[in-house]
Amino acid sequence: MKRSVLVCALVGVLVGCASTPEEQKPAETVDIKPSVSQPTQPSKPSTDPRAGVSKPQTVGGDPLAALKDPSNILSRRSIYFDYDQFTVKEEFKPVVSAHARFLSQQRSMRVTVQGNTDERGSREYNLALGQRRADAVKQMMTLLGAPAGQIETISFGEEKPRTQGSTEQAWAENRRADIVYQGE
């Protein structure tokens, strides 16, 4: 029941945002500097999933180069979640959208979406929550045009924390799904 409500809500949001812009404006570049103490997040959440998203491009014919270019949204690979949640937040929808578009253009590329949690909760609960987070990112990517066969999901639960510690900052950094491309 929860899953069908989530799917309906996600489809409703995507349909509501499906208008075509009148003119293409150049995308803004986002200066992304990872912080040890806080998750990498945009400073101002956008309500438009296409905001700040440029068309994924390859650099010099190498698709992996675009993934490593810090000025390209594709270099952002972590989707952060609220405590005990697996809904993709508005501020991360442009990132998921850019990766979905990239995968639809690069049919030979494969990704693994790795779901992670903080240390709170039982091992079994955290594995299940991590899987739901990874599946939520995959579902959004496929709804945005990425072929499902190019995306694998896995949960690490609390087993692969990015930050050690039992503080809210450490927990926030560990509540994530990471998009990892094959061949990196």
Features:
60s Ribosomal Protein L30, Chain: A, 5 helices, four-stranded mixed beta sheet, alpha+beta, 184 residues
Provide structural commentary.
The protein has about 180 residues and is an alpha+beta fold. It has a domain at about 55-184: 60s Ribosomal Protein L30, Chain: A, CATH 3.30.1330.60. Helix content is about 35%, strand content about 10%. A 4-stranded mixed β-sheet has the order 1-4-2-3. Helix 4 (about 125-145) links the parallel strand 2 and strand 3. The longest helix is centred in the last third of the chain and has 21 residues, at about 125-145. It is globular, with a radius of gyration of 16 Å.
Summarize the structure.
With 184 residues, the chain is of the alpha+beta class. The chain has a domain at 57-184: OmpA-like domain (60s Ribosomal Protein L30, Chain: A).
